[in-house]
Amino acid sequence: MLRIALPNKGGLSAPAQEMLREAGYRQRPSERDLTCLDAENDVEFFYLRPRDIATYVSSGDLDLGITGRDLVRDNGSGAGTEELLDLGFGRSTFRYATRVGSKHELGGQRIATSFPELVLKDLAARGETATVIRLEGAVENAVRLGVADVIADVVETGATLRQAGLEVFGEPLMESSAILIRREGGTSNGSTAQLLRRLQGVLVARRYVMLAYDVRADMLEDACALTPGIESPTISPLHREGWVAVQAMVLLADSHRIMDELYELGARGILVTSIHACRL
Ligand SMILES: Nc1ncnc2c1ncn2[C@@H]1O[C@H](COP(=O)(O)OP(=O)(O)OP(=O)(O)O)[C@@H](O)[C@H]1O
Ligand SMILES: O=P(O)(O)OC[C@H]1O[C@H](OP(=O)(O)OP(=O)(O)O)[C@H](O)[C@@H]1O
Ligand SMILES: [Mg+2]
After folding, report:
1. Residues near ligand 1 with C-beta < 6 Å?
2. Which atom of ligand 2 is nearest the CA belonging to 139?
3. What is the mean predicted confidence (pLDDT) over 23-51?
4. Mean pLDDT to the nearest integer, 111-139
5. Which ligand is nearest to the CA of 9?
6. What is the pLDDT of residues 213-222, one digit of tens each?
7. Is pLDDT above 90 for 280?
8. Torsion angle, alpha carbons of 268, 237, 220, 231, to 10
């Protein structure tokens, strides 16, 4: 039986469960449940604090885990894990910020953060010495309340920083997103490979749509150049003489541009449908 750690709370919890449901796995019926057995798929899920997940996976007590890359790097046990897949949600950067107009320096400053290990590693790499103050959250308040001169925190839109009168400085310490991890050097059995294929299928289904259209046969090569598909587009004959129907997967983000260009080529009956799941 495959044993998988998932975030029990916080911003990564709901999207992680949604992704697993889309991949065909059973998820806990109540947000208070700490385990969920999916007997049909021979998988058991354990809902844990996202910060703790690397601890269980690096020790080998759980086979796989979903958590934030930044949380793994801030957990000493993270070094004993490896990343199998970027799951595409929970994207953020981790950055230093200070009061607008203040000096952009780290040496000798008091730096407030919920990610002390990340910050200490970064300071060591820079050869800087500073005082790191560990806070549980709402770190942006630390500067105006006088507890710190600088913060190091998760930035998504930057709205929280702006509201607190802070500005980022320097390069991001890291870019994060939700990831699937396993024990470093671990081997994949059949169930792990199946889970990976299913999650990859969800990622593709989220990024791509199926495009179908009719086009005159003499324009087919130009049309296929716009919609090459992943392997090759499907061409079917139409009852109408001299016309064919084409089906191909295209990136959702490109779909409207491609539809406009196909229409210009003379294609008609252009339809976009979403993909619920796939194995490529
Ligand atoms: N806007 C965001 N705010 C907080 N975390 C975010 C955001 N966007 C992505 N993340 C990621 O979510 C993870 C933080 O999850 P965690 O469960 O620790 O805290 P949370 O979602 O902020 O919940 P809480 O702070 O209420 O416990 C990190 O990997 C972080 O990079
Ligand atoms: O760049 P933004 O889009 O504004 O998002 C980033 C903010 O969101 C998170 O806070 P959260 O709501 O998790 O509260 P916390 O600080 O107490 O964890 C994070 O710690 C930042 O404060
Ligand atoms: Mg938070």
Report:
1. 7, 9-12, 50-51, 68, 70-71, 90, 92, 137, 154, 156, 176
2. 16
3. 97
4. 98
5. 1
6. 999 999 999 9
7. no
8. 110
Across the chain, where does the E strand assignment appear? 2-7, 35-38, 43-48, 64-68, 81-86, 92-99, 110-113, 131-134, 150-155, 166-176, 178-183, 208-216, 234-237, 243-251, 268-274
User: What are the strands of the beta sheet with 166-176, ordered from one edge?
Assistant: 131-134, 110-113, 150-155, 92-99, 166-176
* CATH class assigned to 92-176: alpha beta
Using an 8 Å Cβ cutoff, are 82 and 185 in contact?
A: yes
Mean pLDDT computed over 83-93: 98
Q: What is the bridge-based pairing of β-strands 2-7 and 64-68?
A: parallel
- The predicted pLDDT at position 189 comes to 86
Asked if pLDDT for residue 226 goes beyond 90, the answer is yes
CATH 3.30.2170.10 fits 208-274, yes or no: no
Q: Whose CA is nearest to atom 12 of ligand 2?
A: 138
pLDDT of residue 95: 98
Whether 2-89+177-187 shares its CATH topology with 92-176 is answered yes
For ligand 3, the distance from its centroid to the CA atom of residue 137, given in whole angstroms, is: 6
Domain ranges of the chain: 2-89+177-187, 92-176, 208-274
Ligand nearest to the CA of 70: 1
Q: Which amino acid is at 52?
A: D
Which residue bears the tokens 């934030």? 68
- The string of DSSP codes covering 187-220 is ---HHHHHHHHHHHHHHHHHHEEEEEEEEEGGGH
CATH of domain 2-89+177-187: 3.40.190.10
